[in-house]
Design brief:
single chain; about 150 residues; five-stranded mixed sheet; 3 helices; globular
Length: about 150
């Protein structure tokens, strides 16, 4: 049986260390059979990915930033439940893109995160989603995504 961990290995993905909260909140909350993961920003091995789509970042750079958000979300999931096979469903993602008012490819940016969820969790990674733009995001990052997951 293919597991999320084996899919990560097949994709040559090593999860980052889960980020600590940067303000007065917790990285995740479990209630009943749901895991709520706080917004994960575009940060990778080289630090924060900052910028504004349509101003000083391309669509492709935004998608790469959204992929980093996905890896950070999955890292928080692993911290919460230890075994990613406990994730039964990616229920909903909320995507936020730091974008110039004329930049309208917000859904395509957040696809960078959504695609990772499907690649790692298979059909259980298909989810409901919102994708909105913002004139600024915390710490000046390009993308932030939060998530709701069903756990077993």
């Amino acid at each position: 049986m293919t597991t999320p961990e084996s899919r990560l290995a097949d994709l040559s993905i090593t999860l980052p260390e889960p980020m600590a909260a940067v303000a007065n909140y917790v990285p995740f909350v479990i209630t009943g059979n749901q895991l709520f993961v706080s917004g994960q920003v575009s940060v990778g091995p080289n630090g924060l990915v900052k910028g504004r789509l349509g101003e000083n970042m391309s669509l492709e750079e935004g998608q790469a930033a959204a992929r980093l958000c996905a890896l950070n979300l999955i890292a928080q999931c692993k911290a919460a439940v230890t075994d990613l096979s406990r994730i039964k469903r990616v229920v909903k993602l909320g995507g936020f893109v730091n974008a110039h008012p004329d930049f309208v490819e917000i859904p395509q940016v957040i696809n960078g995160c959504s695609d990772v969820m499907v690649n790692v969790f298979g059909d259980a990674g298909r989810h409901a989603r919102s994708a909105v733009s913002s004139p600024v995001l915390p710490l000046g990052v390009a993308v932030e995504v939060d998530g709701v997951f069903e756990i077993g």
